Amino acid sequence: MAPIQLLINNSPHEVEVAPDTPLLWVLRDKLNMTGTKYGCGMGLCGACTVHLDGQAVRSCQTAVSSVGSKKITTIEGLSTDNSHPLQKAWIAEQVPQCGYCQPGQLMSAAALLAKTPRPSDQQIDSAMGGNLCRCGMYQRIRRAIHRAAGEGA
Amino acid sequence: MATVISRRKFMVRSTVAGAGLLVGLRFSGPMLLSQESEKAKKKSPVNPFDAYIHVKPDGKISLIVAKSEMGQGIKTGLAMILAEEADVDFNAVSVEQAETRPDIYEHMGTGGSGSTMENFMPLRRAGATVRELMITAAAQKWNVPKTECDAKKGLVRHTKSSRQTRYGELVEAASKLPLPDPDKVPLKNESEFELIGHATPRVDIPSKVNGSAGFGLDVRVPDMLFAVVARCPTFGGKPAHFEASKAKAAPGVRDVFEIPALGKDMYTAGGIVVVADSTWAAMKGRDALQIEWDRGPAASESSASLRESLRAAASRPGKRIRNDGNVDEALPSSAKRVEAVYEFPHLAHATMEPMNITVHARDNEAEVWAPTQSPDWVQRTVAKLLDLPPQKVIVHTTLLGGGFGRRYMADYPAEATQIAKVVGKPVQLVWSREDDMTHDFYRPAACHRMRGAVNQAGHPLLWSHTITSTSIGAFWGAPDKLEESEVGGAKQMPYAIPNVRLEYAAVPSSVPPLWWRSVEHSFNGFAVECFIDELAAGAGKDPVEFRRGLLVKPANWKPKDEDDPDPSRLRGVLDIAAEKAGWGKPLPKGKGRGIASYHSFGSYIAEAAEVTVSGKDFKIDRIVAAIDCGQVVNPESVRAQAESAIIYGLSAALKNEITIKDGAVEQSNFDGYDPIRIDEAPPIEVHLLKSKEDPGGMGEPALPPAAPAVANAIFAASGKRLRRLPFQLKT
User: Fold this and answer.
1) C-beta separation of B393 from B365 below 8 A
2) How many helices (H) and strands (E) does chain B have?
């Protein structure tokens, strides 16, 4: 088990894990960064979404050895003080209920807005369709994305 | 110095006048109990007061809430009630999660949509008591009559002398005063409410948008290990042989051992445990196990055979639950008969956070971090398995990544305790999504047979309803109460029909059943609200007008039981939903509107659906909900709960079913059991009726009307009746 270097939220980290370990479990169990959630382990629910060089990926399907020098951004890297426009919009629209899926929802939304600053409803559907919310807060998620887009996320 | 008040303390202080024993400390339950008078014990309230209020010298108030936060916003709602009557700024109240002390809090379970219902009046009285004590303390300090003083926003004022003082400065004096009778403290008039009924941002939301919110799976304690369990795929099966050498050799694996299934009250599957340094290592270790299963007595059960059993049982007489008039009387030959059979599959809860719990069994005590709806049951379970007194088991309730009834069960705590006993270190038991979906406790499968008739004038003559299901009561081992969790809402069928019969029959199944969001209302609401629609069609009448005509409130109306709906409140929401949905306005071909109006958990909700049907496909264009849940506390939470319950109900109507083959669940992840996603979620409009009635629940009651409203809309659009869930529209 050779050490693996990771750049997470602009901080360097070194971990010693089996190379096939999913990034999700490295974040959660090795680095205690528990904001990124386990939901299905198969890339079906989106709760584990993080960014690799700005692209939304499912960290449960990303072997840590495949990350290389790509910059990892997790929910903790969006901002810890809720200053990101999406976090503000999520609060303004009172989006979360149980809240468990929301880190993944926010990371998918952030990747969407980075590429498509003013997404249509259809673009929201296609970017957010991989993120399940069992509390069903979808229309609030949609409103919050539009709100953040309007405020120039 | 601080004042701590609870309902119990009200009682104690009123019987041990001026003792002041509670000042400056958190009192201990046993001490209180021993001092509580026999009279006070007998007065033990139906809706137990289960919060502490802690007024601090800086004027801040802590409210200690013994309810679990699973997204319903209960911490915010309860704090609003307290702040309203105490007359302090909402921001002056902070909310803390209670320790697990059933000796103090009595009823810690969070379920049955009950947290607001249970706490509304006790918390109002508690808040008013705080205000009253502050006024009394200020009046004494200034040596003026109490009646000349007034309290507002955390200040007591004496207008005549232009004096005022903060609550915080009065705490010490107030805490020495005898407590007023909580039943006589002056309460605000509803028209004076500044918080109750006004949208208030939820206190739990900020931590839920930056990853800092602590769910059960996020618990991290020093030296902790992680465990997964390989369980027999069939219910009641067990390992026959297993070979663990490869698993033990897997990187990070610390131990592999077998735990037995536990019986009644624990309901665990047993299996082979893999303990490792990380969740992933434990999962990989489990993959390396070689297990031969003894598939047990239920290995041949299937959903197909269960469906046949349910249908057969529904065609036979069952236990008589309601019998008005005589449904067997000969009908006039001109009567139009209507019959329908509705079928419902097993359903999984599928909370986004799979089951998990962290347990540390130490010498003579244990500590538990539990995402649970029933921390007191967790405590009793862990204590029993470790042979400890319950008070030696510290249970911390974390946030819950969804509950929906599943997290009321104490199976996963029992399993984790079996493991923790062996491991000796803190251990987090993690259920994979597959574990969670294949070893859930499921919404019962059911079949309902309906029979009705209308006369030539379109008046209904009879209503006969036979329910068969895999009874939750049977699972609990209550042979005389098989129908208890199965007939609600059907028994209280609200339409004025002269001859009504309801019968129930349980059908055995090895698939463990449990309360699933709205419990039996999830199928009874469908049966009642679709069949009344079928009767309306049989009578050739408009579904809204037909219902209105049958929601009659006699002058001397009294509820038959506490769940009996008030027909006029039901008609009230029906009218608003119809109006807001544009009922009666023409729609293009292929579109249709449907409606359902239903009472459960103390709330009245009507939902109108608008759909577009094209060939084998249909789309829900929108849902309009009208809600009378009595006095609204936080309208924002009521709306969110309605949206949530509607989507949860529509996931079941449109897509989800758990099927059993060879004794095992066939679906294992969100590919086979895929809830509604954002592109499938219809817009939902929620309209709240103003009401001064007692608050009803809101966690569940918006669910039952959703599916029948859609089914009725599809009928309106296409003439096709969908009678089996999940819907399949065959051309």
Assistant:
1) yes
2) 19, 27
For residue B295, pLDDT beyond 50? yes
Is it the case that residue B148 has pLDDT exceeding 60? Answer: yes
Indicate whether B488 belongs to any domain.
Answer: yes
Domain-ending residue, one of B208, B238, B271: B208
Residues in chain B with CB shorter than 8 Å from the CB of A141 are 678
Helix (H, G, I), strand (E, B) or coil at B352: coil
Residue of B nearest to A77 (CA): B210
Are residue B629 and residue B559 in the same domain, yes or no? Answer: yes
Domain match, B587 and B636 both: yes
Which pLDDT band, with edges at 50, 70 and 90, does B52 fall under? low
In this structure, the strands spanning B93-97 and B149-152 are: unpaired
Average pLDDT for B74-91 = 92
Is B204 in the same domain as B220?
Answer: no
Cβ–Cβ below 8 Å for B220 and A142: no
In contact, B593 and B609? CB cutoff 8 Å: yes
What total number of domains does chain B contain?
3
Do B423 and B455 lie in a common domain?
no
Is 80 exceeded by the pLDDT of residue B46?
no
Same domain, B222 and B200: no
* CB-CB neighbors (< 8 A) of B279 in chain A: 25, 28-29, 38
B56 has pLDDT over 90: no
Residues of chain A with CATH 3.10.20.30: 4-76
Backbone angles phi, psi at B250, to 5 degrees: -65, 145
Q: Which CATH architecture is the domain A85-150 placed in?
A: Orthogonal Bundle (1.10)
Boundary residue ending a domain (B410, B430, B450)? B430
Domain CATH for B319: 3.30.365.10
Residue A39, chain B, CB below 8 Å: the answer is yes
Question: Are A98 and B350 in contact (CB < 8 Å)?
Answer: no
pLDDT in tens, A98-131: 999 999 999 999 999 999 999 999 999 999 999 9
| ipTM for the predicted complex | 0.98
Quick one: B537 and B459 in the same domain? yes
Provide the number of CB pairs (under 8 Å) joining chain A to chain B.
192
Question: Angle B723-B724-B730 (CA atoms, 0-180°, nearest 5)?
Answer: 85
Under CATH, which number does the domain A4-76 receive? 3.10.20.30
Same domain for B125 and B231: no
Exposure of B358 by Cβ count < 10 A (0-12 exposed, 13-18 middle, 19+ buried)?
A: buried
By the 8 A CB rule, do B325 and B433 touch?
no
Question: Looking at residue B476, what is its pLDDT?
Answer: 85
Please give the full DSSP string across B536-594, using - where no structure is assigned. Answer: HHHHT--HHHHHHHH----TT---SSTT---HHHHHHHHHHHHHHTTTTS---TTEEEE
Domain encompassing residue B401:
216-296+355-430
Report the residue from A28, A39, A140 with minimal CB separation from B352: A39
Nearest-Cα residue of chain A relative to residue B199: A94
- Considering the domain architecture, whether residues B426 and B515 belong to the same structural domain is answered as no
Q: What CA–CA distance (Å, rounded) separates A52 from B503?
A: 59
Helix H or strand E encompassing B9: helix B7-15
Cβ distance of B401 and A138 shorter than 8 Å: no
Helix and strand numbers, DSSP H then E, in chain A: 6, 5
To the nearest 10°, the Cα dihedral for B85, B90, B91, B94? 60
Structure tokens at B326: 């005589």
Residues of A in contact with B352 (CB under 8 A): 37, 39, 45, 47, 98, 100-101, 132-135
pLDDT digits (tens, 9 = 90+) for B210-247: 999 999 999 999 999 999 999 999 999 999 999 999 99
pLDDT digits over B325-366, tens only? 999 988 888 999 999 999 999 999 999 999 999 999 999 999
- Cα B136 to its chain centre, rounded Å, is 40
Question: Within 10 A of B146 (CB to CB), how many other CB atoms are there?
Answer: 13
